[in-house]
Automatic annotation (TrEMBL):
Biased composition (Low complexity): 35-47
Protein family membership: Belongs to the AB hydrolase superfamily.
PANTHER family xref list: DIENELACTONE HYDROLASE DOMAIN-CONTAINING PROTEIN-RELATED, POLYKETIDE TRANSFERASE AF380
InterPro entries with a match to the protein in the record: AB_hydrolase_fold, FrsA_esterase, Peptidase_S9_cat
GO molecular function: carboxylic ester hydrolase activity; serine-type peptidase activity
Region (Disordered) residue spans: 25-62
UniProt xrefs under Pfam families: Peptidase_S9
Peptidase S9 prolyl oligopeptidase catalytic domain mapped to chain residues: 137-343
GO terms classed as biological process: proteolysis
Protein name: Alpha/beta fold hydrolase
PROSITE patterns in alphabetical order: PROKAR_LIPOPROTEIN
Keywords, comma-separated and alphabetical: Hydrolase, Signal
Residues making up the signal peptide according to the UniProt record: 1-20
Length: 344
């Protein structure tokens, strides 16, 4: 069943079932959630009470799977930019009880148009401004006939605050991205084709896309990531934060335990553990000279998707760095060909 068929009208409410979220896509068969009690209860005398499943840790992929995700109330605000090809608006939408800001490019002409949600990479929230990040992609995709919703995420620009988000491994960004898709679908706007929606993420946003694919299979039709982070959060923290003495790391260790102290938590926080749940095609772009996110991260993620029998392609760009420069046009042609195949 497609995820979108489970939406409850304009409210954009979806309950994601936890069945089958024990992972295995990483080649590790250790269960990460208790088995359902339905099969056992069929053989148990009626006098014996049925055990109640233990809820998943809310700070985990299974915890996100169990959530009732909401995305609604997409509102267009002031016009920010008008071009010959599209109009850009300031927007807000609701995601799991928070108001999230962003920008949206709507192509000129007769719709409805397929839509893309863009998940940007890390930019310090203290200096971030609405719509910052993925500016080239916003422009080009809108000029090629896509409605583009660039989410700011919680704690950014005009979005509501979530003080626990950093300590909780920024999993709230995944909720914001799921909510963005659901808000597009339930908006009722004639320019938006709610049945044709894709995801595009860069760097940290690539990790947000991975999370979204495993938490909400069927939510979108296809996904693309550029120079993504590792699909194991502990590697990202070690690479980007621990070595720089980020004080948040000590708080993360205190709250959740280190990977050595609490390996179960870190396994359940990793989307690579749950790639068996993914149902959408995924295209990964990565430069061989990436100085920020080592290409080996994408190679390992691709191998896990392939082992699970998923539709994944890794395109490597010799000598290209993290931000993509000389080969960016070629990478975007490949991206638009990919979306043309799966969204048109």
């Amino acid at each position: 069943m497609r995820f979108r068929s489970m939406a409850c009208g304009a409210a954009g409410l979806v309950l994601v079932a936890a069945v089958g979220c024990t992972g295995g896509g990483d080649g590790d068969s250790e269960p990460t959630s208790p088995p359902t009690s339905a099969r056992a209860s069929a053989k148990t005398p009626s006098a014996t009470p049925t055990p109640t499943p233990t809820p998943a840790n809310p700070v985990s992929i299974p915890g996100l799977i169990e959530r009732e995700h909401r995305g609604s109330d997409l509102k267009l605000g002031n016009v920010r930019v008008r071009t010959d090809a599209y109009t850009q608006y300031a927007v807000t939408y609701e995601a799991n009880g928070l108001t999230i800001s962003g920008i949206m490019n709507i192509p000129r002409g007769k719709g409805p148009f397929p839509a893309l949600v863009l998940a940007h990479g890390y930019i310090d929230p203290a200096v971030y401004t609405s719509g910052r990040g993925l500016a080239r992609e916003q422009e080009l995709l809108a000029r090629n006939g896509y409605v583009v919703l660039h989410t700011d995420y919680r704690n950014h620009a005009g979005s509501d605050d979530d003080p626990d988000n950093d300590v909780n491994l920024r999993l709230g960004y995944t909720e914001d991205t799921i909510g963005a898709v659901m808000a597009l679908r339930s908006s009722g706007r004639p320019e938006i084709d709610g049945e044709r929606i894709g995801l595009l993420g860069r760097s940290m946003g690539g990790g947000v896309v991975y999370n979204t694919l495993v938490v909400a299979p069927g939510l979108v039709d296809a996904a693309v990531v550029f120079a993504p982070v590792s699909s194991r959060p502990n590697e990202n923290i070690d690479h980007f934060q621990r070595g720089d003495g980020d004080p948040v790391v000590a708080e993360i260790d205190k709250t959740h335990g280190t990977p050595e102290e609490n390996p179960k938590f870190w396994k359940e926080a990793a989307p690579i553990t749950y790639v068996d749940r993914v149902t959408e095609p995924l295209l990964i772009h990565h430069g061989t000279a990436d100085e920020s996110c080592p290409i080996v991260w994408s190679e390992r993620t691709t191998a896990a998707f392939e082992k699970a029998g998923k539709d994944v392609e890794l395109v490597k760009y010799k000598g290209e760095h993290h931000t993509f420069a000389p080969q960016w046009p070629a990478s975007m042609k490949t991206t638009m060909d990919f979306f043309e195949k799966h969204l048109r």
